[in-house]
């Protein structure tokens, strides 16, 4: 609990680097105390193949919270080796073998969803850095003012989403099959979840507590599915195939945010900002990405390490680079060489400034861009 409070306070004060560091420590604590967290692969129930419990204890809640924090941390900071990601992913394999065909409670759907999404993100981090060595994230020991973090839409400058991005090489069959397996698992979860989601949608006033949770679960799953498919893309135009998913994400978020305050607020979990930023940066349909940007600008908030002001600033910057002042364009009008890959950000731990880096591949040459957010 003390670790969670520290993460909350550091995020509230804007110290994202220290908050992420405490998240990593919290994950180690949950493993040491044998709390059944979905990303550790250490739950006795998972390993035995027994069904997940229908009741919820304090330990279950802590495990669920740190599971979500683990996914958020993997999006921003990857301190594990490829071998460790593979071991953690394999440890969660039981989740797909014991998952029911139809979920009956939101707790059951959440438990299996967290496990499968964690499996998917471990795969994404493996394919981004197949040969990565362990890189412990200890900002306080490093004593650096500027902390560099990779973010979810690219690896490092000059590399992109995977080692084959921007090249004429073909992604090896091994990785294509792994990506398909992850996508199938996520689609299987969505199929099992759909009847429960429809039930909540039919009576939102009756299920006033469960319905918002269901929307967030669906958003997380949809975004994860798109990210898994995108992990093997070598061209930015490949993302255009996910326009239906991008539209659905924006539609669900519009419903969810309608019940939230319009004044600025802070929440512990990362709920919506990352999904909207994904749409703005990866969906090149002018109307859809502008709807996502409007939801960022009209609902100022901070969610865990994410801030709508920063996300909206980066989104508008990417759109300006790609559209070059032409206004609202269809995705087919933004050519491959005009498309921008956001790669990483340098976070100023003293003043809170963020220097975001991005690149374009024009005639085989990497063109770099930087933008400072104060």
Summarize the structure.
The protein has 14 helices and seven strands. With 374 residues, it is an alpha+beta fold.
Helix and strand run = HHHHHHHHEHHHEHHEEHEEE
Query: What composes the largest sheet?
Result: 4 strands, antiparallel
Distance between the termini: 32 Å
Write down the overall geometry. Answer: globular
Beta content: 5-15%
Write structural notes for this entry:
Residues 35-55 and 151-160 have low confidence and may be disordered. The chain is an alpha+beta fold. It contains 14 helices and seven strands. The chain has a four-stranded antiparallel β-sheet with strand order 1-5-6-7, covered by helices on one side. It has a three-stranded mixed β-sheet with strand order 2-3-4. α4 runs parallel beside α7 (106-128) and α7 (106-128) packs parallel to α10.
Write the layout of secondary structure elements.
Elements: H1 2-12, H2 16-32, H3 44-48, H4 58-76, H5 82-91, H6 94-98, H7 106-128, H8 139-142, E1 146-150, H9 173-202, H10 210-230, H11 243-257, E2 265-267, H12 273-282, H13 286-298, E3 301-303, E4 306-307, H14 308-323, E5 341-348, E6 354-362, E7 365-373
Parallel strand pairs: 2-3
Antiparallel strand pairs: 1-5, 3-4, 5-6, 6-7
Please supply descriptive tags for the structure shown above.
374 residues; alpha+beta; four-stranded antiparallel β-sheet; three-stranded mixed β-sheet; globular
